[in-house]
Amino acid sequence: MMTGKEKISTFQVAILIVPVIVATEIFSAPGTSAEYAKEDAWISILLTSVTGVWSLFVMLALAIRYPGLTPIEYSQEILGKWLGILVGWYYVFVLFWYPATISDEMMNFIRLFANPTTPRVAILLLFIFVCGAVVWAGIEAIARCAELIVPINIIFILITSFLLFGDMEGKYLKPVLGHGLIPVLQGAVVPSAWTGEFFMIGFLLPFVKKSTQVRRAGVISLGIVMLLMVWITLQSLTVDGEITGKMNYAFYAATRYVSIADFFERIDPVIVEAWVFGGFLKNSVFLWALCISVAQLLGYENYRTLVVPLSLMTLVACLWFYSNAFEMQDFLKYTFPSWGLINQNIIPTMLLMVDLARRRRKAQSA
Question: Any stretches that span the bilayer, and where are they (predicted)?
């Protein structure tokens, strides 16, 4: 147990979980969905809420049954010591993959649109160093960063959306379901893996001061995420038009249309800043969860001793996992959906079912 010293509020949990989902989905999801669903990509995004609701309520149910424990800890309570430890180390690998991939994705975006001549290692080193520094400071520091960054990012997105309103053309949304339901379902597959990342709330809940309103906060966060993603997808479709499905960063491309009297234009650098800040928050949460998970499995009281070595390992993994941006995109498109469904939805659900069966057996034998 390492939950005694650091505590965050219910509001901070709600505001932290938003960038965990949106930070990497906001630019990629519209193009990924439109590749299959075409003008119905916004419907695909709506359907992705299924994995979000599923993951959210499973993790909330487990947290109620095991208050103050992280998934690493209650896995051992549910499955027994050795099988629980095995599941715990598996999730350590899963949590290790996330910051490595997020960092690589941020690096590719920065090199593509902001600093094309900066060496890959330099960007990764700086990004991971900043994330490691805030993880060292603790979950309270990460939450306070989120309180500052998330509202600013949302304001930037809303202002950009307002400025793009005149460039939106509704004709690009017709015909609705003109290609049938199957393409819509195909367009929902990849983004559903991102919304399933609500499972991260299971690592945050043991550090909440008062958990009475956590379910409400989780539902509100899910609503904010879905509203943002549906609106951004609608705007990408109506501004970028038929080429939306051919773009990896469709919303970013749409922001480049902003122009007011040939004076106020080229606001896309602001969007780059907003996405990097969101990626920083998301990466920090996953790196923090990785550190506390390894510490719990090794029996360390202070997870901070692991921040530096795990951050360095993340840097090495970024250079090792993917040789280039295309390889990473292929993984996210073809492997991540099943990977996410298993790790974020199916395994937690199986833990909940096993726990229900054990408790029922105990009640019958009593």
Answer: 12-29, 41-66, 78-100, 120-139, 146-165, 185-205, 217-234, 274-298, 305-322, 334-354
